[in-house]
Amino acid sequence: MDIRRTRYPDIRSLVRPAVVRLAEPEDIVSILTCLRKGLHEVTHDVPMPEPDMPYALQAMLDLIAQDFVHVTINTNGHVVGVLALHVNSWPWVAPSNRAGHYLTDAYFWVERPYRRGGTATKLLDAAKATADRLKLPLMIEVSSGGAEVALKDRFVRRCGFEYVGGKMYRAPRDSLAPPART
Fold it and tell me: pTM for the whole thing?
């Protein structure tokens, strides 16, 4: 059998459409499960610490209470995607100056079978609607390693975001030597 000629079904036909909605406190266990899955998926290139679950639980519940967490629910009622937002501010602008505030993603992850077919786009659309309602800019940060960084960058640009820089990562070194002077 020539595998190149074998026609495989499109995965999108196997995955039923998912619904995006605001998260509810009852979703917290599923949200934290997605958080752990997502962190384990990207930790091969950029080591991320394990979540401190009591803290993560409270932080996510606080964001849910502010209507800052959007989830994707599949037809079985399971959370298969999360986009949690939080308010951030520029360090050179006083916290009382609203012009220095913006929304950013605290966490954004979608299970692999749901990554095609618009699930992540729907989550971003929900986040954009939240930012528009609050009249705040929205910044999405891509924090993962490997080849997926370029894919995620392109995806976010296609969703109407402008590239304004990126995160760079360097692991600490075990050397006790003072830094070299140039």
Answer: 0.80
